[in-house]
UniProtKB/TrEMBL annotation:
It comes from Brachymonas denitrificans DSM 15123. InterPro entries: 4pyrrol_Mease, 4pyrrol_Methylase_sf, 4pyrrole_Mease_sub1, 4pyrrole_Mease_sub2, Cbl_synth_CobM/CibF, Siro_Cobalamin_biosynth, Uropor_MeTrfase_CS. This is Precorrin-4 C11-methyltransferase. The keyword Hydrolase does not apply. SUPFAM superfamilies: Tetrapyrrole methylase.
């Protein structure tokens, strides 16, 4: 129990994409120290609370309003030294971190954030895909399709897709028809590879669906995938099966960096590795 004059700290902990074992060590240790934990049961597996100590107050926020969540956190921080708010993925991305931080600041409750693995990275890992490749794309855009929440000017998927880089599209599986139309309007071809991962890393529930711009909607419909899915559109998809790849210069024998001097002339090393100079 905390003295009323010494409030505890609220920790916003990224619960990761679903697999409790993808929690960071720091996040797991905070759960083990917590006097109270509030988790988003609609998106975070209750298994993520498995390290909570005996007597820890554990509540599910799935039916709470923002005001109720903040009130709960403030109340618990007045009683416990460590209060954990478990949030899906990473707290800084598509969450309500700032909306919750402001009332806690106003109440004089100290806060801190522990990052988590976001579903874009978990989905790429599940499918064994790289989001960047030398001379293919070096840029990754994390975005979503406009739905009930409008997109700021200049951030429509059509505009972002014109870069032809990797697009990790959150919160949009029910708007897959919009994703398709926006990519087409940006000039993506019908055979552009597409990846959808449902519940990435969730034990026993993960599903990986592959298709093209012209087929992915039908594939998802047939599979019954209508929620909690990451959509990835990228020119790098499927590279594992490409017969030739431009190699990274980081490990090229002709490339010098602060930990290793070049062991072969750059032109010779590049020629032997298939990497252009």
């Amino acid at each position: 129990m905390q003295s009323p004059s010494l409030p505890g700290k609220v920790w916003f902990v990224g619960a990761g994409p679903g697999d409790p074992e993808l929690l960071t060590v720091k996040g797991r240790d905070l759960i083990a120290q917590a006097g109270a934990i509030l988790f988003a049961g609609s998106l975070v597996s209750e298994a993520a609370t498995r390290w909570a100590p005996a007597g820890c107050v554990i509540a599910d926020s799935k039916d709470m309003t923002l005001e109720q969540i903040c009130a709960w956190l403030i109340e618990q921080a007045q009683q416990h030294a460590v209060v954990v708010r478990l949030q899906t993925g990473d707290p800084s991305l598509y969450g309500t971190l700032i909306e919750m931080a402001q009332p806690l600041d106003a109440a004089g409750i100290p806060i801190a954030v522990v990052p988590g693995v976001t579903s874009a990275m978990a989905s790429a890992a599940a499918a064994v895909e790289s989001l960047t490749l030398p001379e293919v794309t070096q840029t990754v855009i994390l975005t979503r399709v406009e739905g009930r929440t409008p997109m700021p000017e200049g951030e429509s998927l059509r505009e972002l897709a014109q870069h032809r880089c990797t697009l990790c599209i959150y919160l949009s599986i029910t708007l897959l028809h919009k994703v398709e139309s926006e990519l087409r309007a940006a000039g993506w071809p019908e055979d552009a590879p597409m990846l959808v991962v449902h519940k990435a890393s969730w034990p026993g529930e993960e599903r990986i669906l592959r298709g093209t711009l012209s087929t992915i909607k039908a594939i998802c419909r047939e599979a019954g995938v209508v929620s909690q899915s990451m959509i990835i559109a990228s020119p790098t998809l499927g590279a594992r099966q490409w017969p030739e790849l431009t190699k990274s210069r980081l490990y090229d024998a002709g490339f010098t960096h602060r930990f290793r001097r070049a062991s072969a002339p750059a032109d010779l090393a590049s020629s032997s590795s298939g990497t252009p100079t």
